[in-house]
Design a protein that fits this description.
Four copies of one chain form a homotetramer. Chain A is an alpha+beta fold. Chain A is built from three helices and six strands. Chain A has one domain (12-151): Hotdog Thioesterase (Thiol Ester Dehydrase, Chain A). A six-stranded antiparallel sheet of chain A has the order 1-2-4-5-6-3.
Chain lengths: 152, 152, 152, 152
């Protein structure tokens, strides 16, 4: 499968994977980076009852966590070598209860810019043969260059 | 401190606390429910390096998780006895890096309705004497009545 | 072209067109309803210098007005005969300046429900042979039944 | 009344008023700039039946148009002399029908930064002695410096 974007940095996949490995939150959630393409990233996670809300489904915020990472790394995959990525804001719509055996978050760049990149994400639940759309996200990411990177 | 709302259900605090206790995600995050008022809820959490993103700050999605619960329970505190609360959607703006010793999420109802309630949330970082606004949320909650509650 | 939705009401197109005709704001903007399918609606408008912001492009709020109508009528096209549609909330991302000879807003249902429907919208600018994505929207719509319809 | 912000540019009010005067959309809507403070702007408009939706209330997109200008100019009032302001994205929640004799949009900066400023807005309806909250907005604004200003 191909995306319509071209990565500026040939080492984009390695950069994304190295940064993802630094996200302790992903380890705690049990999320793994399954696919990295220019402008598109997938992250998988199993059901985990330690991450549920009051009705036994995955908490909307945990869904957001995985989608935010998917959207952020989709954006980061297109950024220059000296850029870091920061989430400015995101919005999520919860469409169905997050019940299933495992889940997948897909993040895709909608519009890439030098400073601002907008990504979209979808979160799916898998149960046996069934796949269901659980949530959708729109996220605005900012590239931050050189040393100002992590201080916003 | 008082809020401008009146709870329909005199047992609102107990209901909120019982439901919060069912959110395993809050235990995993180490979040505790510190205050429950009609239309207003506070949740605290310590810094925890297992919940960080790639720069060592609390992951935006974890911030969202706590804010979503604060906004949801602020809405739930005003709902009738036979209602459950579901998050329809939320939006978060990340304003400063989430660094600090501990954090507090404050959720407040902006407009309560029989079906739809809109809440606002703020997430603060505390470090020594300093308090800093890290993120703000707007969340749309839906009351679901009787048995249809958890199936959306 | 076909959509993946089936309209509950065989008169869906007529209902959408009649309601659209009541939106005086659409007349003022010069917007016309170009296509009505189950779960999908297109609205066109010409460039009009009376609707610009300070740099001479169409104002982001005017873009929102047309996209909100497109998203709302996409949702309405799937609703039952005794339902009215209300916008609960929407979010728009502005991706490029709204310059062009004419514009088209496309609204599509993402998830339809009895009470809540989520639609997505895209706003395109046309200039000669060129088509450019100007903005994207996510909107949450509510079906309101019978006489409670217009009072929220 | 005072705000907690200090304008970087002593001519902030004049700059805001001159830019507002260039927004033809504001003239078409009949909106006037009533107050300009550092980080806070108010805009008023009368009821106008040419701006309504299908139930006879002001269209949600027209509300967005006025709120976007209020939020944008609140941000612009704090920006440097060589900066222009662009809306990156906004989200609006519609809380009550926009019926009334006149309306006021209030935009306030929540967090100002060199590149990104987040503003909040509220839209009120006035009818006789009554004032009612109709909608609330969160908007993300970007400062663009020097000649790159209007091309995103």
């Amino acid at each position: 499968m191909k995306t319509s974007f071209t990565a500026n940095n040939p080492a984009f996949e390695q950069r994304v994977r190295e940064s993802f490995a630094l996200q302790n939150a992903m380890k705690t959630i049990g999320a793994t980076l399954t696919r990295v393409m220019p402008g598109e990233v997938s992250i998988s996670m199993p059901f985990n009852e330690e991450l549920t809300q009051q009705h036994g489904y995955i908490h909307a915020g945990i869904i957001s966590t995985v989608l935010d990472s998917a959207c952020g790394y989709a954006a980061f995959s297109l950024m220059a070598e000296n850029a870091a990525v920061l989430t400015i804001e995101f919005k999520i719509n919860l469409l169905s209860p997050a019940k299933g055996e495992r889940f997948e978050a897909l993040g895709r760049v909608k519009k890439a810019g030098r400073n601002i990149t907008v990504s979209e994400g979808e979160f799916y639940a898998y149960e046996g043969e069934n796949k269901k759309l659980v949530a959708s996200m729109v996220a605005t990411m900012m590239a931050v260059y050189d040393r100002e990177a992590t201080e916003n």
